[in-house]
Amino acid sequence: MSTDRMSPVAVFLSKTIDGVVYAVITAGAASLVGLAVGALFAEPLVVLKYLLFVGGFLQVGVGIAQLWPSDPSDVRESAPDEVSRTQRVVNRLSPTRCLGLPVGRYFALGTKRFLSGLAILLVSFGLEAVLGV
């Protein structure tokens, strides 16, 4: 790692780590909620798989809709105005401070929701492919 903490590589790495941690946390939370809902029924893993499948596609769709520019001036990525509760949890669990990377650099919310939807779909696929649910 270079000594310049604001180099483009360090900023991209910080954003990527933040996005991955965000996706893992939201996929884990969705899995726990889906498992709790599935526990009310006879087959909790089957219900979990279907809930994650539908929820993952909804999350991907919302992320794409948020990233879609409404006019040519919207192409630039804007910085988030406020920090959400989920982002505060991600900031506490993110290893960016330990790695000496710039803190407070995030992808847009649409990008994080898209990554989160992909992670949720990956968990749903894992339930089907690995566990045979």
Entry summary:
This protein has helices at residues 8-38, 44-67, 85-93, 96-99, 109-129. The chain is mainly α.
Structure, described:
The protein is mainly α. Helices cover 67% and strands 0% of the residues. Helix 1 crosses helix 3 and helix 2 (44-67) packs antiparallel against helix 5 (109-129).
Tell me the structural class.
Answer: mainly alpha
SSE succession: HHHHH
Q: Helix share of residues?
A: 55-70%
Q: Termini separation (Å)? A: 43 Å
Total count of strands? 0
The average pLDDT is 83
Shape: globular
Calculate Rg over CA atoms: 17 Å
Strand content: under 5%
Major sheet attributes: none
Layout of helices and strands:
Layout: H1 8-38, H2 44-67, H3 85-93, H4 96-99, H5 109-129
Features:
globular; 133 residues; mainly alpha
